[in-house]
Amino acid sequence: MLYALRPLAFALLAALGSAAHAQAAAGTAAALDAAVLDALDLRIAAAAPRVIEWRRDIHAHPELSGREVRTARLVAEHLKRLGLEVQTGVGGTGVVGILRGALPGKVVALRADMDALPVEEATGLPFASKVRASYRGKETAVMHACGHDGHTAILMGVAEVLQGMKARLPGSVKFIFQPAEEGAPDGHDHHDGAATPAWGAKAMVEQGALKEVQAIFGLHLTGNLPLGVVGYRSGPLMAGADSLRIRVQGRGTHGSAPWSGVDPILASAQVVVGLQGIVSRQLNITQEPAVLTIGAIQGGNRDNIIPDSVEMLGTLRTFDEGMRSEAKQRIATTAQSIAAASGAQASVSFGPTAYSVTNNPPALTEAVLPALKLAARGRVTEIPKVSGSEDFSEFQKAVPGFFYLLGATPKGKEAATAPTNHSPAFDINEDALAVGVRTLSVLALDFLGRP
Ligand SMILES: [Zn+2]
Ligand SMILES: [Zn+2]
């Protein structure tokens, strides 16, 4: 995910006090009788040590977005060993495995992301990453600082567990291991106006990964929810994210004689201030929240030269597609009008990041909730919106999809203060992995079992 989750670390204990009730209610999950769950739990217990081994192996060998070659090979070899139909190179390094149950039925997809981040690991774990790679022209450390190592290992575990239950599986399960969730692969991230090729989930969808699929499920690990707790939300869960670039073109001149040129520094300062009026004054934030941040601004090189131009970079986060397009329109108009007032020109472009809102359809959310509660043994809680983003939204644009967060607060840490995703100290409690396997397996079985 393109952001950290610390805001989620609110007091959950009261909510979890009602776990017993939730578990009783969960008994209504269709098509999942006790015998199936018992069989599932035996297989999960058998697979759990290997899931941890895979996670540690992947953690020690992180790969940046779009370069998940070793990870994809590990995944593909595992799926082939299980006897699944395997497609590699889907949307870059993506891998799709198809498990066909012995009984006829629907097709459900489960998704994991495989990429790591340019972060220098500071966990001190025995299997901490020592990997370095070239990124944006510089050598950088690489780390699984967002838990995608765990997601990949969990889904490998689910494939193993469900393969073992194939004889009574109605329908098929597609296992989707996607590259480049964290953003455009290095080299795609240009701003020269050229169209950026699709990456990550979008590229996999374009290459047919969701063919015949009727629903998709995915999860994200976070240290900021207590261990084993599932956080869910109906409707918008995570924000849409649009990166933006504004170039303010003035006319360079001597710093002592600004009237002989057009100062893009002052115009840019006014643009930055003006942009903050969009969320606070122009969008109807009673509908949904929004965030607009300018995170980089560059122009000039010394005290007495007014530069020709200034460039700034920012990010827009929204929870409604209508507000998203309105905000983008207003950003362009605001920057252009303010720059024009001083004789400068602003050109505004969006991308390469353009993630839609991660939106859990209410009907699907309601339908899966009993099974989710059953799978998480009642430890399920509704969470606030997250201003981070996920390209799981690309799958949800194609088929109904449900995304949830899974608590994995490391041993000896508190959810409220545990290192966030993307932090050099980010870590997970590996006991969460089995909960991940159980919840995704149950969601798939429940979906296939329902008429
Ligand atoms: Zn992530
Ligand atoms: Zn992330």
Model description:
The protein has 451 residues and is α+β, with helices and mostly antiparallel strands. The protein has 2 domains: 6-236 and 358-449, Aminopeptidase, CATH 3.40.630.10; 241-354, Alpha-Beta Plaits. The protein has 11 helices and 18 strands. The strands form 5 sheets. Strands 1-2-6-3-7-18-8-17 form an 8-stranded mixed beta sheet, with helices on both faces. It has a 4-stranded antiparallel beta sheet with strand order 12-14-10-15, with helices on one face. It has a two-stranded antiparallel sheet with strand order 4-5. Strand 4 and strand 5 (138-141) form a beta hairpin. The chain starts with 12 loop residues before the first helix and ends with a helix. Residues 10-28 have low confidence and may be disordered. It binds zinc ion (2 copies). Residues 1-2, 146, 182, 421-422 line the site of one zinc ion.
Q: Can you tag this structure with a few keywords?
A:
451 residues; alpha+beta; Aminopeptidase; Alpha-Beta Plaits; 2 domains; eight-stranded mixed beta sheet; four-stranded antiparallel beta sheet; 34% helix; elongated; binds zinc ion
Briefly say what this structure is.
This protein has 451 residues and is an alpha+beta fold.
Mean pLDDT: 93
CATH homologous superfamily grouping of the largest domain? Zn peptidases
How much helicity do the residues have?
Answer: 25-40%
Number of strands: 18
Bound molecules: zinc ion
What general outline do the C-alpha atoms trace? Answer: elongated
Domain count: 2
Give the assembly state of these chains.
single chain
